[in-house]
Amino acid sequence: MEIKKTNDVKPTSINVLIYGASGSGKTTLAGTLQGKTLIVSLESGLLSLKGKDIDYVNIQGKTGVEKIQHLRSLLGEIEKSDYDNIFFDSLSEISQAFTEFAKREYPDDKQTMKMYGYVLDLTTKFIKYVRDMNKNCFFTALDKSSQDEVGRRFHLPDLVGSISSKAASYFDFCFYLKVFEKDSVKTRALLTDTKEGYLAKDRSGLLDEYEKPDLGLIINKVFKKG
Which of 55, 75, 119, 158 is the most buried (most CB within 10 A)? Predict the structure, then answer.
């Protein structure tokens, strides 16, 4: 038995969930990555990256079932590819597609609880499969605002069912892309730690509470480069 020290543990890849409001600039973060990047797009919203020369593939299909079938067929190719970074845009769309897929298995309204349990299982297995590819993997998601029983508001990734509150636990990093406005000037920052009702997470402990919206710089911090 080989005994090792935890202080020798070094990351080989990272996995990140980034969520925020529509139009906040989540997709443009793919343009800040270093190395060979592939965008897996379900939203057809890549105009903001025009001129960035990044490879992408559109997930085809008119229905959620067709989209999931196409996505699954691509995963093996992606895993074997030489891409350093895989950027999924977005997990919200994937979650919705899994819901359509699950409704085919549980079409009866009386089976709603089983259907949502199946969605949770499908989404969790998908995230874990991608996470274990040994590539830098990034997922975007929309923001969902909710209110607890005492009136406090909080923000979560907009996913179907209970996966919203559980998703962050499957990632090393969960960032909220926050937009600040002062004197009509907007600036953006990635919140890396839970604050003021925004769910966020930094498993490395190496990031500032707010980081510049630059995933390349964040990777360098995590890997202690530069």
Answer: 119
